[in-house]
Amino acid sequence: MNDDLTPYEQSEMRDLVLAGAQRIRPAGRHRMQLVAGAVALVLIGVVSGGAITTAALLGSDARPAPAPTTSETRPAPSPSPTPETTPAPTPTPSPPTPVVSAAGVTPFAGECANALDEASVEAVAKIDMMLSDYRWKTGANEVLGGIDCVWVSDGVYLAATAHLMAYPEAVVDDALRAGTATGCAPVTEDGTQVECTEAGVVGGTWLVVRAAGEKDSVTAPGVAGLFAEASRRLADHPAPTPAARTAEWWALPDCAAIVASIDPAVYGFERVALLAQSSRGEATERLEGVALFAGAASWCELHFTSGSGDTTSGEVVRVDVVPGGAIAFQTALDAADAQPVTVDGAEAAVIAPGLDRYEGSGSVVVATDGVNVLMVTPDFIRSTTDALPLTAAVLALMHP
C-alpha cells in the first residue's frame, strides 16, 4: 500500500480491495447534480433535548413568620394603645447560580444560516451557492457544543464549496489548532482550483472558514471577510459549551471486541471480520469535523462473508457510535422519509436518510437507549430493514 496515502485514503483503499474481492461494486457513486430544487430535500435539524433533559429543582429558603402568641392579661380601666411595630426588612434573594445545560449549547443557536448567509458566500465564490446541511444530526457536534456547515454551488456540481466549523476552544486541543493551515493552496494539479482557509479563536470559540473554487474567484481576503462576518455573528448568540457527560454515556467501543462478539448469522453470513475502524486522525489532516479527533464519536466497518473460493460473497456494514448523542435523536425522527422501526433493546429507533451532504447516500438505522446513539449502515445492495437484528446485537454490546 502506498505510504504517501493518508490514513483515511488507506482505509478507503482497504475497503475497495477487500470488499470488492467479494462482489462487483461500482467504482464510485453516480454523482448527483445539485439543483435549486434539491433544497427541499435538505433539512436543517432542530436540536432537541428529546431523550436527555435536565431539570433544576429550586428549593425556597423562605420560612413562614411565626404565628403571634397571645397571653392572658388583666383588664385595664381603659384600653391601652397597641404600639406599632416596624416589620423586619425582607431580605433580597440572591440571583440563582446559572446552570449549564446538560445538552450543551451550540454556536449560532445551532443554525448554519445564522453563521453566514448565502449572499455573503456567493460574493466570495462568485457563483450561486446554497446551504447543504445535514438531513439530521447524529449528536456528535452537539455533545461537543459545535457546528459544522457546508455551502455548495447551486446548479453546477461542486464548482465551489464553503465550509464553516465552530467549537468551544476547550474541546479543540492545541495540536489541531496548530495543524489547521491558513491561507490558500491549490486543490487541482493545474492550479485552477484553490482552497483558502481562515481560522482562529474568537471569544473562546475556535472558528474555521474555508472556501474552494476558481482561483480567480476565491481569494484569501474574501475568506477573511467571511471569517470576520461569522465572528461578529457569534456575539449575537449564547457562547457554545459542550454537553455535560453523565455516567450513562457509553464508552467508545472496541471494534475488535464487537467483531468477536457478533454472530455473523444475525446478518445472514458465515463469518465477520474487522475491515476498518476510525482513528483520531492527524492534526495536519483536512478534517470534515472534529468529532473523531475530539473523541466524541467512532466507527467500525465490519466485513461479513460466506462461502469460499469463487462462491465467496460478502458485504460491508458500518457501525457508528455517539455517546450522549440522543440529545439530537429527534432530528432523525423528523427527517424527510424517516421510518420509525422497532429494535430490540432500544428505547426508540428509526430508519433515516443518509448524511452525505454532497451526493445521495443510502439509509441508516439509528437507535437510541435514551442517552446514546448507535447507527448501523448496511451495504448499499441490502434493504436497511435487514440490519435491524444486527443493530439489536450491537446495541446489546454497548456499555458506559
Overview of this structure, please?
It is a single chain. This protein is an alpha+beta fold. The protein is 17% helix and 22% strand. It contains 8 helices and 13 strands. It has helices spanning 7-20, 118-125, 140-144, 174-179, 220-234, 255-261, 329-334, 388-395; strands at 129-131, 147-153, 161-168, 183-186, 193-202, 205-214, 271-277, 298-306, 313-322, 339-341, 348-352, 364-368, 373-377. The strands form 2 sheets. Strands 7-8-9-13-12-11-10 form a 7-stranded antiparallel β-sheet, sandwiched between helices. Strands 1-2-3-6-5-4 form a 6-stranded antiparallel β-sheet. Strand 2 (147-153) and strand 3 form a beta hairpin. It starts with 6 loop residues before the first helix and ends in a 5-residue tail after the last helix.
Order of helices and strands: HHEHEEHEEEHHEEEHEEEEH
Q: Approximately how much beta-strand content do the residues carry?
A: 15-25%
Question: Could you say which structural class the secondary elements and strand pairing correspond to?
Answer: alpha+beta
Uncertain residue segments: 5-101
Strand order within the widest beta sheet = 7-8-9-13-12-11-10
Major sheet: 7 strands, antiparallel
Q: Give average pLDDT, whole number.
A: 80
Distance between the termini: 37 Å
Count of β-strands? 13
- What is the radius of gyration computed over CA atoms, rounded to a whole number of angstroms? 28 Å
State the helicity in percent bands.
10-25%
Query: What's the quaternary structure here?
Result: single chain
The shape, in one word, is globular
Number of helical elements:
8
